[in-house]
Design a protein that fits this description.
Helix content: 55-70%
Number of helices: 4
Number of strands: 0
Oligomer: single chain
Largest sheet: none
Order of helices and strands: HHHH
Radius of gyration: 31 Å
Structural class: mainly alpha
Shape: rod-shaped
């Protein structure tokens, strides 16, 4: 049977670390079923950076923002392609002058 991964909020982590300082590491690790190494990691982050150290290191991006960024990149590529086509056409027009139609 697969164990479900538990996610602790920064507030939960802070409460567990503070409880561990009052009651002892072993008792808190048993109570919350934590590995002592995980508790030690939380405690060291709390002691070095304070409450900010207990927050997740990764930054979640809102899916709507990500979709807008992807659309923005797609539109930039389209504009760049069109600008290149216009530049190539204008260069071709400069190189080949328009020949007047010959009269017969």
């Amino acid at each position: 049977m697969k164990k479900e991964r538990r996610v602790f909020s920064p507030e939960d982590r802070l409460a567990i670390v503070q409880e561990g300082q009052r009651e002892g590491t072993t008792a808190v690790c048993r109570k919350y079923n934590l590995a002592p190494s995980l508790y030690a990691r939380w405690k060291s982050k709390y002691l070095s950076k304070g409450v900010e150290g207990l927050k997740p290191a990764y930054h979640r991006i809102d899916p709507e923002v990500r979709a807008l960024e992807e659309e923005n990149e797609r539109l930039k590529r389209i504009i760049a392609k069109q600008a290149l086509e216009i530049e190539v056409k204008s260069e071709l027009l400069k190189k080949s002058p328009i020949q007047p139609k010959s009269r017969r």
